[in-house]
Design a protein that fits this description.
CATH topology: Nuclear Transport Factor 2, Chain: A
Strand content: 25-35%
CATH class: Alpha Beta
CATH architecture: Roll
Shape: globular
Order of helices and strands: HHEEHEHEEE
Number of strands: 6
Distance between the termini: 28 Å
Number of helices: 4
Number of domains: 1
Length: about 130
């Protein structure tokens, strides 16, 4: 039995692209999934170029490719709050209406992506770990 509504296959596919971009350290790939302004660890990023630069600096500090990917959970926002409580303060500037939250477990650490559908496509609107 599901904990809440079941995510669309297109959302699941986009969330897996998010995980792939994280694990392979490809900031350009992650920036292609994003909608702007983007919320990165509590700070608004206005453009794809600025996000790519910020992610390049962040990815340069960690190599996730050798870590085990344990799975990905995807929840609508009300279900996520019911199961885990309010999101981290770093995400407090985000309007969570009509969003889905994914938590990727990579090497035992949670990586959180927030997605919103716009013009028939799922976009990453926020990321934190």
């Amino acid at each position: 039995m599901a904990d809440g509504p079941v995510p669309e296959d297109a959302l699941k596919a986009t969330a897996l692209l998010f995980v792939h971009a994280l694990r392979t350290g490809l900031p350009e790939a992650l920036a292609e999934l994003a909608d702007y302004p983007f919320l990165l660890d509590g700070e608004r990023v206005a453009t794809k170029q600025a996000l790519t630069e910020r992610l390049r600096a962040a990815f340069g500090q960690a190599d996730l490719s050798a870590l085990t990917f344990y799975g990905l959970k995807t929840y609508d926002y009300p279900t996520m709050v019911r199961l885990y409580g309010q999101p981290p303060r770093r995400l407090s500037g985000l309007d969570f209406e009509d969003t889905w939250v994914t938590v990727a477990n990579i090497g035992g650490h949670g990586y959180v992506g927030v997605f919103r559908k716009k013009r028939g496509r799922w976009y990453l609107v926020a990321y934190t770990d």
